[in-house]
Amino acid sequence: xxxxxxxxxxxxxxxxxxxxxxxxxxxxxxxxxxxxxxxxxxxxxxxxxxxxxxxxxxxxxxxxxxxxxxxxxxxxxxxxxxxxxxxxxxxxxxxxxxxxxxxx
Length: 104
What we know:
By secondary structure, this protein is of the alpha+beta class. It is built from 1 helix and 8 strands. About 15% of the residues are buried.
């Protein structure tokens, strides 16, 4: 019975390590810089996939990642996409951005 438990535990640990590697592989590579009207800027290094809703609102964005970033004027990536910022672009004037989505 003991060898069977060790085998199951080993499989579980291997699965967690594989999942961690997959999450890292899906992260954007590079930096995403949000420019706020009163400063300072916020640089996100290798941002993870998902929605980012900073406070206060940002007015421009520099995308130095390897993926396109969708910008929304609503918090929590609500509403419609108001701008897509391609890799290597910026700073790009947004108006008043409330959230961005990094694709997976």
